Amino acid sequence: MQDFAFLRHVAIGQYLPGESLIHRLDARVKLTLVMALTIALVANTSYIANGVLFVICLGLIGAAGLPLRYVVGVLRPALPVLAFLALFQLLFLGDASVVTTAPRLVFWQWGPFNVTSSGVQLVVISLLRLIDLTVLATLLTNTTPMAYLAHGIEDMLKPFSRLGLPAHEISLVGVITLRFVPLLAEQLETIMKAQASRGANLGAGGRLCFVQNTRAVLVLIVPLFLDAFRRAEDLIVAMEARCYAGGKGRTRLTDLRMTPADAVILAAGLLCSAGLVALARRFPF
């Protein structure tokens, strides 16, 4: 039954109470820093820049007081897919354009297969980006209550309300989407355990039998989607029963307020991200 424990690998969308510095930061500051670091990740293709960003993410994990194994554990179920994609990039994308001043080296070449220094760099950078993005998304949801996260998104989108953008509705949809991630993982785990107890051959091929296990999981998509639609319908009925009519005229129990510490950390994070973006083409390798 441990092979069906999907919920333990889902860290995104679950809030973990704490008193760390990251927990106390304003939700708008955390959202802004996540977007700034994401831009820096996309703009850099060098080992040095991505190594610096990886160290920053590790530092944020330590500052939040979260175990590294828990945060990175969300990638464990996707390891077979990641290994396949990394192998594909290494063998077929050896000529990929990677911004670097280092000379391109050919390590091995045979027919359509081409292993070069650019291909190796592409694989390493792609994996580091995926880990960093996963860490940032996990930290954002694990250290911010959903209500504060919704308020932060709404406040950041409020200036665009004059253009007709429904800030409250967009923030509500985003938070509900994040909240559904662990719920769907829990439901998938329940369905798989129920079918396995009735003799279904799920996960019996082992961790390395990726194709066989994928075919077995495909039969679970229909009941999973039906349960998702049922939960969505229950949520709609509950909102209508409470006379929900959008964000117009709604008030809050608590308002977000930035402190001097929030301003200092925000400025430092933006300067760091801007520096990495500005120096993206100047790293030697």
Can you put this structure into words, describing what you see?
This protein has 285 residues and is mostly helical. The protein has eleven helices and two strands. The chain has helices at 21-24, 27-43, 47-64, 68-72, 79-92, 117-142, 146-157, 167-197, 210-218, 221-241, 260-278; strands at 106-110, 113-116. It has a two-stranded antiparallel sheet. Helix 5 (79-92) packs antiparallel against helix 6 (117-142). It starts with 20 loop residues before the first helix and ends in a 7-residue tail after the last helix.
Question: Characteristics of this structure?
Answer:
single chain, 285 residues, mainly alpha, two-stranded antiparallel ribbon, 62% helix, 3% strand
